[in-house]
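Problem: given the chain below (249 residues), write out its structure.
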Amino acid sequence: MGVRAGKARRWGTVDAVIARFAAAARGRVPRLCPCCGHEGLFTAFGDPPRYDARCPRCGSLERHRLIRLWMDRERPFGPSHRVLHVAPEPQLGPAIRALVARYETADISPRRAPDHLLDICDTGLPDGQYDRIVCNHVLEHVDDIRALAEMFRLLAPGGLVLLTTPIIEGWATTYENSAITAPEERRLHFGQADHLRIYGRDLRDRIRQAGFRLSEFPAMEPDVHRHGLIRGETLFLARKPDPSSEEAA
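Solution.
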């Protein structure tokens, strides 16, 4: 009798935990999506799940909403700009396209029918073709040194790359190991089966060493709780210097 009662209590606890998780996965607190205007509950997303991560209307995640907030405040896209969107997200693409002279997409996969089917490490595109490059959650999948150098080459002087990537600010250096190639091992070490590294604070050094000047837009309150952002997640803004404007100054 005692054993059966103990099992009943244990399973009752498990059921309660599952029920609480299921309820939270459907949304905890109403949020506002700056990408589509939805105001209400967001849903969990990710592995492991992040609560209130995904907008149920447009599918935006925290990084998309962070970028859209920055876009709305800083107005970085203008009617003369030429934009390359790498691994393009539908949560951002249409809004950018409406603001610029030329909007092009690029991906290594044909799944979304990009304008350019290419490897961002070696695009084959001409020098100085773009004023803005959008590159979210790509660097952790590729040879980042080559990718940064290629984006620097593709930018016109004064051009800007918008970068987001997973980073652990408590780590001084990036963790990577080229001997780890099996998907499950990569998941264990880097958090996802197709990731090659987890960045530390030295990501900034890698960006600067490619020739960029760097500024940052971090997720802070009250934006975090209002829009469902990850506390401290950072949009890295890498600008290619423009010698002509510096000489004029």
